[in-house]
Fold each of these.
Amino acid sequence: MGFLTVVVLNNDASHEIAENPQEVTRALVDGMQNLGPEDKDHGVGNHSNAILTMHTRHADDETLYMFAGGTLTEVTPKTLAKYDWLREALKRALKRTRI
């Protein structure tokens, strides 16, 4: 099936994204070629974190991400141990879904 890359666009950077299509394209391609393990912030124009690309995953991988704290974070045993806020955000989200 190939590979997939999750992309987050910072709405605060919408003007810079609209005015710099070549930088956006380079950032997206750079993110798509990032086989990890680190995620990447990409600056566009005068905005230092206009685009966040999560490292590329194989389409068959099962990956869970959490939007919280103004960012997107992969939920893994390592990140759950490292970030108290992530554990609490995940608990709240699961409570809302009534799982």
Amino acid sequence: MSIVAELVKSVVDGVMREVKTKRARRRKKTTTAGSTLKKIEELLRPAKKQTSRRKTAGTRSAAQRKRVTTRTKKHKKSLRVGKARR
């Protein structure tokens, strides 16, 4: 029995050593000159300006337009009334 246990132990130790020493090597992604240039150009490009609310309001559906108008009316009214003046 001790011979079998010793044999199993030596096999397990050998396998564990192999697993520990052989690790998968991972390659670093190399960036090409074109991709680097593209990233730099994106950073240098000016930010897009926000479209005006008039332009976006024209494309809204009728139900959404009603919701937006009631919300803005409530907000404007809350600014005028009470202690919460700004």
